[in-house]
Amino acid sequence: MIVAMSHLALSPDQFRFVKAAPRSMEAQKKRSLSFNQLHVPSVGASLYWHPKTGEIANIGVPSDQQRRGVATQMWNEAHRIAGETRGVRPPRHSPDRTAAGDAWARSLGGRLPRRSSWMNDDD
Fold first, then answer.
1. What percent of the chain has pLDDT over 90?
2. How far is CA 69 from CA 26, 56, 65, in A?
3. Does 120 have pLDDT greater than 90?
4. Which range marks the domain in which residue 64 is found?
């Protein structure tokens, strides 16, 4: 996959990865879930994805940093980390995408799950 270079080039040192913690019996009873997390503290951006399915739970980039390639760099870095870290699945797109999230996912190319019909296009 070829991805266009970002307007904001982040170095690998700027990313902070937190692997999802194993679920305890208590967490399983409460149905709480720990997600894999990738943060860019200098930008205030983050990506959370399900440890078993890889489905993106949330991706956030501050409005003043959007359209600078930050989300794409997080996507690429998360895929790199998953390839190098045992037990970490790479993120994949969720059917629950906002209009902005759908546009971003489409910009990456590849197959996307059908977007959930209940998502509001006015987001």
1. 72
2. 39, 17, 9
3. no
4. 13-108
Instruction: Return the HEC string of the chain.
Output: CCCCCCCCCCCHHHCEEECCCCCCHHHHHHCCCCCEEEEECCCCEEEEECCCCCEEEEEECCHHHCCCCHHHHHHHHHHHHHHHCCCCCCCECCCCCCHHHHHHHHHHCCCCCCCCCCCCCCC
Question: What's the structural domain count of the chain?
Answer: 1
* pLDDT(2) > 50: no
Is residue 114, in this structure, part of any structural domain at all?
Answer: no
Q: Rounded to whole angstroms, how far apart are CA atoms 53 and 91?
A: 8
pLDDT of residue 32: 53
What distance in Å separates the CA atoms of residue 85 and residue 120, rounded to the nearest whole number?
A: 35
Residue 8 lies in a domain: no
Is 41 within the bounds of a domain? Answer: yes
What is the Cα–Cα distance from 68 to 41, expressed in whole angstroms?
A: 16
Residue type, 61: V
pLDDT reported for residue 114: 94
